[in-house]
């Protein structure tokens, strides 16, 4: 039980931490399809009340990682190949569109931020700690690409798609970070050249390549 217990520092952002922890254990395969995620048990394991567990389960239901059933509670529904197909196809379409619509609104400081994130990611290695840091920087990079997009709903849809497995893909595909980094560099190049079509195609290729490689991982493990 102690291995899951949240520290006092973690409790400063309690809801976020609880949701992240439950998402992590599901994505790591600690549950099988159809297993129940019992609120009382996880409240005790994390050292919190049932309320943040309940709120976390509602968020995970939106992400498709659990299903809330009357009288049974939260039933775990792990990511399937079909889920990967859907999530990454939608991401490719929506993120490509959002980045193109963001392009006219990006300021010089936005481009400088993207270049700074590129430098930080390029300086990282392949050990576990570096991959964890790369994961965070990668999420920031993709957010910065679309920051200027004026469409509110597209941001909301992309944010929902990112709350499942996408943030964890660098750790699953750590042997392919160099290829991902080269694609990131091309994205910044086309932003600086104000080339929307090449930017869109590079983002779509980047996300769909990740989809294909994730599907290989899932099918190999199964």
UniProtKB/TrEMBL annotation:
Signal sequence extent: none
One Pfam family, short name: GntR
InterPro entries in UniProt: GntR_C, TF_FadR/GntR_C, Tscrpt_reg_HTH_GntR, WH-like_DNA-bd_sf, WH_DNA-bd_sf
Positions of the HTH gntR-type domain: 12-79
SMART domains tied to this protein: FCD (SM00895), HTH_GNTR (SM00345)
One MF term in the entry's GO annotations: DNA binding
Keyword tags: DNA-binding, Transcription, Transcription regulation
Protein name from the UniProt record: GntR family transcriptional regulator
